[in-house]
Design goal:
Blueprint: H1 5-16, H2 33-58, E1 70-78, E2 81-88, E3 96-101, E4 104-105, E5 108-109, E6 120-126, E7 135-141, E8 146-151, H3 160-183, H4 186-189, H5 194-224, H6 234-261, H7 266-295, H8 303-321, H9 331-342, H10 344-354, H11 358-379, H12 393-410
Antiparallel strand pairs: 1-2, 2-6, 3-4, 3-7, 5-6, 7-8
Helix pairs in contact: 3-7, 3-8, 3-9, 3-10, 5-7, 5-8, 5-11, 5-12, 6-7, 6-11, 7-8, 7-9, 7-10, 7-11, 8-9, 8-12
């Protein structure tokens, strides 16, 4: 018996729940977004691995001689001995065949086994060096390539155990004490008007701008002398970018908490914390430079070093308390801000004397640059006058004065 077409259509419409008479498509279960992302990442990784395995095997062998590149990362001078820590920065293994000091063949140990890419080896030279004399060390590889390393003036490398205490003391002299001295002007700042505080914030911008430029130049120089195994000057950009993004995230968290708390004075304290963090990261790089210079005998430990850094870093303490002029922070908060800005100089000096790695120093200096740039962005809105103008004559004068102060005090530093 044939079915009634009208009856069939009504049944379909009723079953589908669609009054228009059109059958709705069936819904299929979808994967969560995170699962789809994991599948996509796994597919990309699988294709890349396949390209590396099968694509690399299909390429022809490279013609020509091996490419040998070696960077000397550390020099240790001991009585009758010179030790070089070398890293293979080229694509091919390297073997040291002979070593010459000032064109004289010397006995050595280490480096004779193949050193693979990015691996290190310690080459120990038996040589009766004389204090203060320059030496040119030539490393001859098994293929005849010559790698040269110059010691401008041989000085005995101090033992790490006795250096750490000295570096901690020196970091206190040039980090914590000067910052604390600068923060002592807070009572004076409370008695001045908003216009003076705005000029002091402009002075802070000038100080930080000089620190950023100075750190950038030093970091790029260190990165260029590192051999480039891990990026060289690129490490500076990497460190600056990561620090800028990290501090931006921290600022967003602090700002959200400030909005929720609705507490008076939160804005100034937040800005003071950001300034202290930026200056602290700069002082970390500053301490690295001090420790590294002392480790290789190139640091003039004298009154000019301490006085120069004291004057140089006292202005940093003023920069920290400038946003707190209209508030009354507790002594605990002030002490925490001072330690946050000054204590990294101790850590940097100890790390620089113990490790003395140019690439690590370049990365940390780059981190300081990124932190300072983020702090300058935080201060910029506070420079705006009531008229809405940001760069009025007073603000420009404050920024210029900050740059000049840092430049003139930096001339007193002999390191």
């Amino acid at each position: 018996m044939a079915a009634d077409p009208d009856t069939t259509e009504r049944d379909v419409t009723h079953a589908s729940g669609n009054s228009s008479g059109v059958t709705a498509p069936k819904r299929t279960a979808r994967l969560p977004v995170w699962a789809q992302a994991m599948v996509a990442v796994a597919a990309i990784a699988g294709v890349l691995v396949a390209l590396a395995v099968f694509g690399g095997a299909s390429l022809p062998e490279r013609n020509g001689p091996p490419v040998e590149e070696v960077a000397v990362e550390r020099t240790v001078v001991l009585p009758g001995v010179i030790e070089l820590t070398i890293r293979n920065t080229g694509p091919d293994p390297v073997q040291i065949a002979q070593v010459f000091v000032n064109d004289v063949y010397v006995d050595f140990a280490g480096g004779t086994d193949p050193i693979n890419r990015l691996r290190t080896a310690t080459v120990r030279l038996d040589y009766p060096w004389q204090d203060g004399q320059p030496y040119l060390i030539s490393l001859l590889t098994s293929t005849g390539v010559v790698i040269e390393h110059e010691i401008p003036a041989a000085v005995a490398t101090p033992a790490p155990g006795g250096v750490l205490g000295l570096m901690a003391l020196l970091g206190t002299y040039v980090g914590i004490i000067p910052v604390a001295l600068g923060m002592m002007v807070l009572p004076v700042l409370r008695r001045v008007g908003p216009a003076v505080v705005r000029v002091l914030l402009a002075l802070t911008v000038g100080l930080l701008a000089f620190l950023a430029i100075d750190s950038s130049m030093e970091a790029i120089e260190l990165g260029g002398s590192s051999g480039g195994a891990f990026g060289g000057p690129t490490l500076v950009v990497l460190g600056a970018g990561l620090a800028f993004l990290a501090l931006t995230a921290v600022d967003r968290v602090l700002r959200a908490r400030r909005d929720r708390a609705k507490a008076d004075g939160a804005v100034g304290l937040r800005l003071a914390v950001m300034i202290a963090v930026g200056i602290g990261l700069h002082n970390l790089g500053e301490g690295l430079a001090i420790g590294s210079a002392y480790a290789v005998g190139e640091l003039a430990l004298g009154a000019f070093l301490v006085i120069g850094f004291a004057l140089h870093n006292t202005t940093e303490g003023i920069a920290i308390v400038a946003p707190l002029a209209q508030q009354r922070p507790s002594l605990t908060q002030l002490a925490a801000l001072g330690l946050l800005a000054g204590a990294p100089a101790i850590l940097g000096a100890m790390l620089g004397a113990a490790v003395n790695n140019a690439e690590l120093s370049a990365l940390l200096l780059g981190i300081g640059v990124g932190a300072i740039a983020q702090v300058i962005i935080q201060i910029a809105p506070a420079l705006r006058a009531r008229s809405g103008q940001t760069l009025d004559p007073a603000t420009i004068g404050g920024i210029t004065a900050g740059v000049l102060i840092m430049y003139l005090t930096s001339l007193l530093i002999t390191a």
